[in-house]
Write a structure and sequence with these properties.
The chain is an alpha/beta fold. Helices cover about 40% and strands about 15% of the residues. The chain has 11 helices and 12 strands. Strand 3, helix 4 and strand 4 form a beta-alpha-beta unit. Helix 1 packs antiparallel against helix 8 and helix 5 runs parallel beside helix 6. The longest helix has about 40 residues.
Length: about 375
């Protein structure tokens, strides 16, 4: 099996595996306890926090660990809205946010808040002017993803952040797909809240990151706990957090070379798929994009059937919305872009993928699509 779905979850980085095994021996105790094992666990947790903070251009006290990227997004959005309740209950977000951000917005709206969704163009990018037009005096929070989970298009976060800052509106940036792939810096982005997810960069699953900038109004949307400065509840998974920090440090060290290598492979897929398969639309910005991700849609083919047949041929890819595939609904990102949604396939590469992997995928894909079109009676259309 050739795994081509790193945007969902990257394989565990060797540095993470090594750190995880070591931490299972030394990092199992309760870090709030004062005895030796607890103090040792606290030192390990603090070290991991410092490493993640340095990687994101943040301060350690701004970094909090959650149980997942989804949990971090929920805390960022609902906590950011709760912290500015006196300002208003209006929330602005882009149409291409991760489903967890959309769901938090729907929750807020169901509780009496208001919602404004900013459209995107055919490449999947927001216009900062449209974002500015959506802001109101009672806007409490805005969200803009750093780059699309679906198509890889990079968003104009610094420009939107400047607009939000001028309007006095905090900006939440979901950087889950960007961290470890491209440079991410809290101050450079201008973000007030940032979220990320360790299993996207080769850390273990079950570790989310919530960054709250100093001075940002944020209030716990859930019952407060003494853990994570009151921003998270429950016993920290210290071995997983340490492994996540180790993986992130390793990824940053290899990021420049890996980005260039994977970007070249993605360029090959973007060029060769429409050349080898007719009636295909490759979506997203061809240049201003994440280096590891490409999405295309095949007319006359069901996306789930295409994923299943590629799986049988030895390739693991995703289809539909990257975060809601189980619903079997078209990707909300592709719908928002106004592009072809049928036969949608997202290929996302990781550090272990090779040129040979891509070449085999390109060789197999035309036959798989052709067989499915024949079964659907569309081979001669």
């Amino acid at each position: 099996m050739t795994y081509l779905d790193a945007a969902s979850a990257a394989p565990l980085h060797p540095a993470a595996r090594e750190a995880l095994l070591a931490a299972l021996t030394d990092g199992w105790a309760d870090p709030v306890r004062l005895y030796g094992e607890g103090r040792r666990a606290r030192l390990l947790l603090d070290g991991a926090r410092e490493a993640v903070a340095a990687a994101l251009g943040a301060r350690p006290r701004q970094v909090n660990f959650a149980t997942s990227g989804t949990a971090a997004n929920t805390l960022a959005v609902l906590g950011g809205l709760a912290g500015r309740r006196r300002t208003g209950r209006h929330y602005v977000l882009s149409a291409v946010e991760h489903s967890s951000v959309l769901h938090a917005g729907e929750w807020h709206q169901a509780a009496g808040g208001s919602l404004a969704t900013v459209r995107v163009d055919r490449l999947g990018r927001v216009d900062p002017a449209d974002f500015a037009a959506a802001l109101r005096p009672d806007t409490a929070l805005a969200s803009l993803i750093s780059a699309s989970h679906e198509v890889g298009t990079v968003q104009p976060v610094p420009a939107v952040a400047a607009i939000c800052r001028s309007a006095g509106v905090p900006l939440h940036v979901d950087a889950a797909q960007s961290v470890g792939r491209v440079p991410v810096d809290l101050a450079a982005m201008g973000a007030d809240l940032m979220t990320a997810s360790a299993h996207k960069w080769g850390g273990p699953p079950g570790v989310g990151v919530l960054v709250v900038s100093t001075g940002t109004r944020w209030k716990p949307p859930l019952p407060a706990d003494e853990r994570e400065s009151g921003r998270g509840a429950g016993f920290e998974n210290i071995p997983a957090v340490l492994a996540a920090a180790a993986a992130l440090q390793a990824r940053l060290a290899e990021m420049t070379d890996e980005a260039a290598r994977l970007s070249a492979l993605v360029d090959r897929i973007r060029t060769e798929v429409p050349r080898r398969v007719r009636d295909v639309e490759v979506v997203g910005d061809p240049a201003d994009r994440l280096p590891h991700l490409v999405t295309f849609s095949c007319l006359y083919v069901d996306g789930e059937a295409l994923v299943t047949e590629l799986d049988r041929a030895g390739f693991a890819v995703s289809s539909g919305s990257s975060c809601t595939t189980s619903t079997l609904t078209p990707s909300h990102v592709l719908v928002a872009m106004g592009v072809l949604t049928s036969g949608n396939v997202r290929v996302s590469l990781h550090r272990d993928n090779t040129t040979a992997d891509v070449d085999r995928f390109l060789d197999v894909l035309p036959g798989v699509v052709g067989r499915l079109r024949t079964l659907a009676g569309a081979a001669n259309l």
